[in-house]
Amino acid sequence: MSDLDQLLGQIRAMPVDARLEQMDGAVMQAVVCRREQGMARRSLMLAGLLALGIGWAGSIVPSAPAQAASTPIGMSDYAPSRLLGQ
After folding, report:
1. Does residue 52 lie in a domain region?
2. 47 falls within a domain
3. How many CB atoms lie within 10 A of CB 79?
4. Residues 82 and 76 sit within 8 Å (Cβ to Cβ)
5. What distance lies between CA 46 and its chain's CA centroid?
6. Which segments carry the region annotation Disordered (predicted)?
7. Residue 63 within a domain
8. Does the pLDDT value for residue 74 go beyond 70?
9. Residue 34's domain spans which residues?
10. pTM listed for this prediction
């Protein structure tokens, strides 16, 4: 037997670390977390692309020319500037 075989045999005979039993739960939790992060990232990218598409389509569609209102929104007939004729 070579020295490497003896070293591997000694390592095989050593007791297993107890922390290795708890590793499965930590690994699975990390996998679930990464999956959720990926799903959130894809949803955000889809929302961004949808917003860009709607904005682009809205800029291409012709609309009526803008016109100013005769009175500002929410201005009452009893406002001081209206009563003074301004």
Report:
1. yes
2. yes
3. 13
4. yes
5. 10
6. 67-86
7. no
8. no
9. 23-57
10. 0.48
